[in-house]
Design brief:
Layout (H helix, E strand, L loop, with lengths): L4 H6 L1 H6 L2 H4 L7 E5 L2 E4 H12 L2 H5 L3 H27 L6 H19 L2 H8 L3 H26 L6 H11 L9 E9 L5 H20 L4 H8 L11 E5 L6 H8 L10 E3 L2 E11 L2 E9 L5 H19 L4 H8 L3 H4 L4 E5 L6 H7 L11 E3 L2 E11 L10 H26 L3 E3 L1
Antiparallel strand pairs: 1-2, 1-11, 3-8, 3-10, 4-7, 5-6, 6-7, 9-10
Helix pairs in contact: 4-6, 6-9, 6-18, 7-8, 7-9, 10-18
């Protein structure tokens, strides 16, 4: 049974959010396998089984024979993953902490989106976001180590034209048809906030602080009614207990300089302007609450951003390199280094804000600037396909990638089997 457990490892945090974590309560945890110094628990196995089945409802529709077969397949794939993790540790492979943190941030954002907001995610786990991230970090790092081992093994694998031809002749009749799809890149601009915008938010924070110190307002009451941090407002502004390094630097520096129950002067961070109250200090840990005042761009700020976006549109239409401009101007740090590439979308999968502007555009065409809640986007259609059958002549590079993937998969599977023979494995 061939299962995409690598994808499951990659998205283990998402798996644990709903369904999977709840399903764990139905099983008495025990060790089901030992691989070198790694163990596989019954709860972990059940989470992957549910992930592979698609849902708990789908699992309940299976016969016992089907469930047993699924269980065996999933367990064997999990064992293979642990074999690779043992290999990574034996080779003293490491992933830089900043790379793990960036990947973790992306996963946590996906969790927040799936949960419907940070507050709902924290309520589900019964802990603040900082603690959730600490718990998931090891899982993310392990997944990245496994992928690093895989990439190191496969980096020199290549296919020849003869390999591609043989692959085509073998699989041409089973090739899926291409569907309508568009690949887009973007350059994201965010409003450069003028001094007047920042000063306006600071002035508002000062006036609220004055009322708080005079006792005319309560910190919790004002936070619940007016704080612009949706994750903490409903809790009266409480962020909870954190360690050093878990909060943005300016917030943290101010918070550690407070006495218990003291309210800070306005603190400016990338999120806006904060009033911070130190609730408790526990050794090097602090428990804080805050009220957030977002910095609202003025009309002039927006006009400046629009003018910059218009100039980028003109430069792109004049032949400027999208990758260079994305690297220079885009504030989407995840895509700026990749030429702003957002990937492929079926027409119906395009974000709502992008669908109408992109519809009808041809390859290499540029949209007018599009404002969303993230900022101002300039989009480029970097490629486009229309529904048709795949041919070797028109789609050689696509077929080549498929041929390479098959060769890599076969080599990878054989290599992992060889590693497994030299690794201590015990199935309970």
């Amino acid at each position: 049974m061939k299962l995409n457990i690598r994808a499951a490892v990659t998205w283990i945090a998402v798996l644990l959010t709903f369904g999977g974590a709840a399903a764990e309560d139905n099983y008495v945890d025990r060790i089901v396998a030992v691989v070198d110094n790694e163990i596989i628990l019954e709860s972990e196995l059940q989470q992957y089984i549910q992930f592979t089945a698609g849902s708990q409802a789908a699992l309940e529709k299976m016969s016992q024979t089907q469930i047993d077969s699924l269980r065996r397949g999933v367990l064997e794939e999990l064992i293979r993953q642990k074999v690779l993790l043992a290999k990574a540790r034996a080779d003293t492979m490491q992933v830089e902490a900043r790379v793990v943190d960036a990947e973790l941030d992306g996963r946590v954002k996906a969790l927040i989106d799936q949960a419907g907001g940070q507050e709902r995610l924290e309520d589900y786990y019964g802990m603040p976001l900082a603690r959730i991230k600490r718990q998931f970090r090891a899982l993310v790092e392990e997944g990245m180590l496994i992928e690093k081992v895989r990439q190191a093994k496969l980096k020199d694998v290549a296919v020849t034209p003869s390999d591609v031809q043989r692959f085509w002749e073998m699989y041409r009749d089973s090739m899926p048809e291409l569907k309508d799809a568009v690949r887009i890149a973007h350059i994201l601009l965010q409003d450069s906030l003028s001094e007047s915008s920042i000063e306006s938010a600071i002035a508002k924070a000062y006036s609220v602080r004055k009322l708080l110190l005079a006792g005319d307002l309560t910190f919790e009451g004002y936070a619940m009614a007016y704080s612009e941090d949706p994750g903490s407002a409903s809790k009266g502004g409480i962020l909870g207990t954190t360690n050093r390094g878990e909060l943005v630097p300016r917030y943290e520096a101010a918070a550690y300089g407070l006495e218990e129950d003291e309210i800070s002067e306005p603190v400016v961070s990338e999120f806006g302007v904060h009033l911070i109250r130190l609730n408790e200090r526990i050794g090097e840990k602090i428990n804080t609450s805050h009220i957030l005042f977002k910095i609202v761009p003025t009309d002039h700020d927006r006009e400046v951003t629009r003018a910059r976006a218009d100039s980028i549109v003109q430069a792109l239409r004049g032949g400027a390199d999208c990758g260079e401009l994305a690297l220079r101007y885009s504030r989407d740090l995840k895509t700026a280094g990749k030429g702003g590439d957002l990937g492929w979308f079926a027409p119906e999968e395009l974000p709502d804000d992008f669908r109408a502007p992109v519809t009808g555009l041809k390859k290499s065409e540029i949209t007018e600037p599009i404002r969303t809640r993230f900022g101002l986007h300039v989009l480029k259609v970097t490629d486009r396909t229309f529904a048709r059958k795949i041919t070797l002549e028109e789609d050689y590079e696509r077929v080549k990638r498929m041929s390479l993937a098959k060769k890599q998969d076969e080599m990878y599977s054989k290599w992992v089997d060889e590693l497994a023979q030299d690794t201590y494995i015990e199935r309970k």
